[in-house]
Amino acid sequence: MLDRHYAELLTGPKLPLAPEGGGLARRAGRTAPADAGFGAYQMPVSLVRGQWVWARAGANPGVGANWTIYPDTGWVGVILTNHDGAPLWEIIEQETQAVIGQG
Length: 103
Prior knowledge:
The chain is an alpha+beta fold. It has one domain. Helices cover 26% and strands 35% of the residues. It is built from 3 helices and 6 strands, in the order H-E-H-E-E-E-E-E-H. Strands 1-2-3-4-5-6 form a 6-stranded antiparallel beta sheet. A hairpin with a 2-residue loop joins strand 3 (44-48) and strand 4 (51-60). The longest helix has 13 residues, at 88-100. The N and C termini lie far apart (33 Å). The relative contact order is 0.16.
């Protein structure tokens, strides 16, 4: 387990991403100023409806995976699929809405 100050250094935002180019805001079509994406050391981090979201997703033919940490709520989500064409981004958005709520 990391000491708190090292965990904050690892997960804290480092480099702002262009508004149209990053984080959950782009996938969900949100343009609210409260939503913003940032690069961090090991993962993209986003500010979604005023709450931090740490996530990593990826897909290849026949597989898809995502993990998301919602530090302000204490929730963690994991999505795994072994199906071509699974709507991974839509599933991630449904998870986010379930944890954070509608925007």
